[in-house]
Specification:
Blueprint (H helix, E strand, L loop, with lengths): L1 E5 L6 H12 L3 E3 H8 L5 H7 L4 H16 L5 E3 L6 E3 L5 E3 L1 H9 L1 E6 L3 H9 L13 H7 L1 H7 L2 E3 L7 H11 L26
Parallel strand pairs: 1-3, 1-6, 2-3, 6-7
Antiparallel strand pairs: 4-5
Length: 201
């Protein structure tokens, strides 16, 4: 089984993924980096610029990468912030059934639910992160996606003061009962009640 980290851009998924890889001796793959590699190593902003800002096309590239990594096993997958969405016929973001079904087939999905206000500021200041919408702010898009992250998540890591990437990685290792010497994650037997995901009816 894989461990799939999802969450808004800038919440620390990549740093947590690296710490998880170090703790568990698992390979770490980034969906955004793989998209870049598949297209001549061009950075994501450049790819979007050359496609005329075509996010629908980008989501197709993302799906192709998700299919590839989902066929592998024993990975830490650092998923892009928009992995939970596709675009409907009118260009609106909707939950991506296809991408999440592929990732869940061999993976446990961990939602890193960080400080969105801070993440939005960091994202705006990062030249390697393209604007998410021409009409909405980074924060507005992040907030709109919250129900999609919640729907995708098997496990939710809530934000907490003083929580470092290492602490987050250690919590995930413990919660999913991951081996620190490689191998596959096991299904958690008794999730911590404060962290257990509940679904609204």
């Amino acid at each position: 089984m894989n461990v799939v980290l999802v969450g808004a851009r800038g919440v620390g998924k990549t740093t947590v993924a690296r710490q998880l890889g170090s703790l568990t001796k698992r390979p770490v793959l980034s969906t955004d980096l793989l998209i870049s590699y598949d297209h001549g190593g061009l950075p994501i902003p450049r790819l979007l610029e050359e496609s005329g800002g075509d996010w629908r096309l980008f989501r197709e590239w993302e799906y192709a990468v998700v299919e590839k990594v989902s066929a592998l096993d024993g990975l830490i997958i650092d998923a892009g912030g928009g992995v939970v969405v596709d675009l409907d016929d009118e260009g609106r973001e909707v939950y991506s059934e296809r991408k999440m079904a592929a990732l869940k087939a061999r993976g446990q999905v961990v939602w890193i639910h960080g400080d969105l206000a801070r993440a939005a500021v960091d994202a705006r200041q990062d030249a390697n992160r393209p604007a998410l919408s021409p009409t909405q702010s980074e924060l507005e898009v992040m907030v709109r996606r919250l129900p999609f992250y919640r729907r995708a998540a098997d496990v939710i890591l809530e934000p907490a003061a003083g929580l470092t990437a290492l602490h987050a990685a250690e919590w995930i290792v413990e919660h999913l009962e991951l081996s620190r010497h490689g191998g596959h994650p096991q299904q958690p037997q008794q999730p911590h009640p404060a962290r257990k995901k509940t679904r609204r009816r």
